[in-house]
Amino acid sequence: MMNNETNTSVVNAAHLPEHGPLDENGREIILTVKNLDITFGKGDNAVKAVKNANFHIYKGETFSLVGESGSGKTTIGRAVIRVNPCAAGEILYKGVKISGKISRTLDKEVIRNIQMVFQDPAASLNERATVDYIISEGLYNFHLFKNEADRVAKVEKIINEVGLLPEHLTRYPHEFSGGQRQRIGLARAAVMEPELIIADEPISALDVSIRAQVLNLMKKFQAERDVSYLFIAHDLSIVRFISDRIAVIYKGDIVEIAETGELFDYPMHPYTRSLISAIPIPDPILEKNKVLFTYDPSVHDYSEDKPELTDIGNGHFVYGNKKEIEEYKALRAKNEPIKSITILQPGEERPAAPQVERSYDDEFINAPVHDTGSKWYVFLSFLLPLLGFIAAAVFKRKKHYRNYKACKKGAIFGVCVLGAVLLLFGIFLLLAVI
Prior knowledge:
By secondary structure, the chain is of the alpha/beta class. It folds into two domains: 4-265, P-loop containing nucleotide triphosphate hydrolases (Rossmann fold), CATH 3.40.50; 373-433, no CATH class. 42% of the residues lie in helices and 18% in strands. The strands form three sheets. Strands 6-7-8-3-9-10-13-12 form an eight-stranded mixed beta sheet, with helices on both faces. A four-stranded antiparallel beta sheet has the order 2-1-4-5. It has a two-stranded antiparallel sheet with strand order 11-14. It is globular and about 95 Å long. Mean pLDDT is 86; it is low at 1-9.
């Protein structure tokens, strides 16, 4: 292990080292996310999308982030490539801090070494550029070829490796299917020869028959190039196939981290069990009689004993308070696989699903595009309080909660100011009469 002085010098280095730090087992750590908070908005509209996230990714492994929509998976991925700013904590690549302000030279090295494959293969490709230019853009920007012949050779090699043909290079993205576009996106990332690829739900927009091809292609690149993946998904059945370790995230909190086999055999956190129970069963009769395990956040009492991510053994981390952690440890010590799926027997009644209340944070994270909470709503509601209250009621009904709070805030402030003016006018009028 490195001492504090050495560690500080590495964290603040101007260039990326050839190798990252080693853990106690001698494995190279390529990426570290430490106490990461990410917040969107300010004041009343502020939403903490990621809360105190901690994990690391080893060289050559696939580390997956799994959770429902709006849980913060993509937010973390975009923070790693320096798109989303960090409110607190830090991100280290090979032991060097890459979050916050860094030198231009280090920024270029980060871009060169960390690439991203996006969820939407259509929106992530420039429709006006040929496939040749799309794949070559990174090579041009970083001058990663000796001459034109070398560039062409690299592009043709990578296009063959992803299962496309050299004649496809002169075509445009709209001439390809979704699976072919995603192959182009993967080729664009792989041609840079990065050490870490962030794959943000790369197969969710693809047909089921194409998904296995793209996953096999990613595994092929990993075996040949020793590349690491941060794989972002919401489907545990897909993640099970490709991952070495899995982190489950819920509303910005990482609630469980474990190796793939460990997580599926011993899911400790109830949210993880709910995700596993949602995996479809191929047998239609069993699927019809399956009882979903519904996660109810109210089962946790964190009013006094605050939770934290704790290692319960076997490299298995679970989010909970002291009481819960002791229960998880005792459950794991039994070494008995935990069933997350219940199949109803013939004639057995289906239990009623618990009612889970949604919070404003859920609505903010999954807010409609036009739910901006603009300051103009506050200003106009201040000038016309009655219309402001009406607009607030309409926005609340339409689940535009940012706009609702903006109109309500402006209207209340407007009523208070109008009331104060009328009160002062009344006092002056009374004094004038006296």
